[in-house]
Design goal:
Aspartate Aminotransferase, domain 1, 11 helices, alpha/beta, 7-stranded mixed β-sheet, about 375 residues, 2 domains, 12 strands
């Protein structure tokens, strides 16, 4: 049976060359980067080299990169760290209704601590209007956090425009760029962001390592305590093998960015066009073209989502109903709800996300399997 992996937004397979870097550092550079002997120095040097390579991917200075355990920790550090640092100046935060739960749940928890949060609406394509951001700004606003690209529908958000609004108002701007970095060009200087979250396993690196970009001159309070690692902001012995592999994946992503985007966008369009033309009562979610190059998401009427994913899995196709982080949840997608799509009737939300290994043959196999599967499930659901 053919096996086709189309769930790269959930996680990417580690590139073999990146895995080699990880193994080499895990076995040969095993010292604690805080130790003063030569083993510690070797680990420290590897860590700083990794910091340089990750910084280069987003146009940052190495000292602006803090290594974390992944996107969730980076989001928490950015939001909580800013809130605690600036709470004497104000307690108002602006975010959107379609953020990843790492952002939404952190903001909701801060509300319980006395902060006020404005959750901005989006349009039917999942797009945040910068005008709504400007209207929401108050004298006590201290942080705006809007993602760079949505994980469920692939829409690319106007992070640069929002960053300019924030800067003009003297407000810190954070963007969750976990889905964007390695897929589209991201330059922190051009964007003008203050804080930016990245995760290695979304760009063919290892799980359990990520980074938070903190613009020089921006100060956040630590949310963890226990040591002076990572500029006293993120205590704990650094994951040197993970950071080195993250760096290798970052360098590879930078070299391949334009070609990967071109190839994957072409395959994405082939997939979306094929689904919509072959399956009646199907609609693309998110922006049709102003979206991540590897991201295809659709609504398919009259089909149970769980049954659809199970049928695809039995055919050797990995897909998702939306965010893998909430795949086990009973609640409907908060992203589709915010887009006003949950009122459309019974449907399955299907997310198919491509990677470097995806081929034309993979896409054509999905287009061969999916219409028949949908037709069978629709017939089975009829009374």
């Amino acid at each position: 049976m053919r096996r086709v992996y189309l769930d790269h937004a959930a996680t990417t397979p580690m590139d073999p060359a990146v895995a080699e870097v990880y193994i080499r550092h895990a076995t040969g550079v095993f010292g604690n980067a805080s130790s003063l002997h030569q083993w510690g120095a070797a680990a420290r040097n590897a860590l700083e080299e990794a910091r340089e390579q990750v910084a280069a991917l987003i146009g940052a200075h190495p000292r602006e990169i803090i290594f974390t355990s992944g996107g969730t920790e980076s989001d928490n550090m950015a939001i909580r760290g800013t809130a605690y640092q600036l709470r004497e100046r104000g307690r108002h935060i602006i975010t959107s209704a379609i953020e990843h739960h790492a952002v939404l749940h952190t903001c909701q928890d801060l509300e319980r601590e006395g902060f006020a949060v404005t959750y901005l609406p989006v349009d039917r394509e999942g797009f945040v209007d910068p005008g709504d951001v400007k209207k929401a700004i108050r004298p006590d606003t201290i942080l705006i956090t809007i993602m760079m690209a949505n994980n469920e529908v692939g829409t690319i958000e106007p992070a640069g425009e929002i960053a300019a609004l924030a800067r003009a108002a003297g407000i810190i701007f954070h963007t969750d760029a976990v889905q964007a970095v390695g897929k589209i060009p991201v330059d922190v200087e051009r964007l003008g962001v203050d804080l930016l979250s990245i995760s290695a396993h979304k760009l063919h690196g290892p799980k359990g390592v990520g980074a938070l970009y903190i613009r020089q001159g921006v100060h956040i309070a630590p949310i963890l305590f226990g040591g002076e690692h990572e500029r006293r902001l993120r205590p704990g012995t650094q994951n040197v093998p993970g950071a080195a592999a993250f760096a290798a994946a970052s360098s590879m992503a930078a070299r391949r960015l334009a070609e990967d985007a071109r190839v994957q966008a072409s395959l994405r369009d082939r997939l979306l066009d094929g689904i919509v033309s072959a399956i009646p009562d199907t609609a693309v979610t998110g922006r049709r073209y102003d979206r991540l190059p590897n991201h295809a998401s659709v609504l398919i009427a009259g089909v149970d989502g769980s049954a659809l994913l199970a049928g695809l899995d039995m055919a050797g196709i990995a897909a998702s109903a939306g965010s893998a982080c909430t795949a086990g949840a009973v609640e409907p997608s908060h992203v589709l709800a915010a887009m006003g799509l949950l009122r459309e009737g019974d449907f399955a939300a299907l997310r198919l996300t491509l990677g470097r290994s995806t081929t034309v043959e993979d896409i054509d196999y999905v287009l061969d399997v999916l219409p028949g599967l949908v037709d069978r499930l629709r017939r089975q659901s009829r009374p």
